[in-house]
Amino acid sequence: MADNKPLEVQEKKELVGKGEKTVPARYYMPNTDIRETEDALLVVMEVPGVDRKNIDIKVEEDTLSIEARIDTATYEGMEPLYTEYNVGHFARQFALSHMIDQQQIGAALNDGVLTLTLKKVQQAKPRRIEIS
Amino acid sequence: MALYYSDPFETLFQFQNTLDQLRSSNWLQTSPSGGGSYPPMNVFRQGEDIVLVIEVPGVRKEDLNIEAKGNTIRIAGSKTIDQGGQASVHRVERRGGRFDRAVTLPIEVDADRIKAECRDGILALHLPRAERDKPRAISIA
Q1: Is residue A116 included in any domain, yes or no?
Q2: Which helix (H) or strand (E) segment is B44 a member of?
Q3: Given an 8 Å threshold on Cβ–Cβ distance, is A50 in contact with B40?
Q4: Which fold has domain B31-80+97-134?
Q5: Segment-wise mean pLDDT, segments of 10 residues, chain A, 132 residues
Q6: Where are the domains positioned within chain B?
Q7: Is residue A6 part of a domain?
Q8: Which residue of B has its CA nearest to A40?
Q9: CB of A113 closer than 8 Å to CB of A31
Q10: CATH number, domain at A118?
Q11: B95 has a chain A CB within 8 A of its CB
Q12: Taking the model in full, what pTM does it have?
């Protein structure tokens, strides 16, 4: 990625999920990159302002759900004067294919970026077939 | 934005994007900042001080450059997105690039006491109001 091009202004997208949340606060959809390497699928999502202990990653019925909650206590006693974005929790779901080994999902959080490593099952890895 | 003439099609496309961005920005309207592209910022007041909160997920501390002069704060930096070489890409939503922004505040700031904090992709700048700029209560004799 060229480093010297200007950063684009990205509007935060509100979550339009299938299941509605039971709490009234607004949720946002984290910007996500998905890349595939030879043995894993990498899901990289931006969750600024979220501490690692406030992230829930669940796998249920072939659905990977991620919920990341911000800490509203940091905004206590602060009066907004000028705003360009809204704050809220983040949530997003992905349907997992059978290529993914659901027992082996790794997660790491770095500078507000959550990286999930979804290992592929053995059969799904590309194999080179030799001609005998 | 400087134009690069290596590829005329790419140049035009970039130029169109730049103009589009400026058209949608509110540079000439009253706002505390200049135009250009930047990570989104919120400004809060905490007591007498001003707090700038900027969302910078994926930006390392080393890649941020913050300067203060008078009541203008400059926030510059770059966001690199590592697409991991040979990986095939399914979905790309995150955007990288460099940004440079100057924010002029309506109050005078004590530059020596500015505190910057960058945690979990949030940059917070605590800008204390200069002692000499604080309003004084005047008692009625």
Answers
A1: yes
A2: strand B41-46
A3: no
A4: Immunoglobulin-like (2.60.40)
A5: 66 72 78 88 92 91 89 83 85 87 89 92 78 84
A6: 1-30, 31-80+97-134
A7: no
A8: B87
A9: no
A10: 2.60.40.790
A11: yes
A12: 0.75
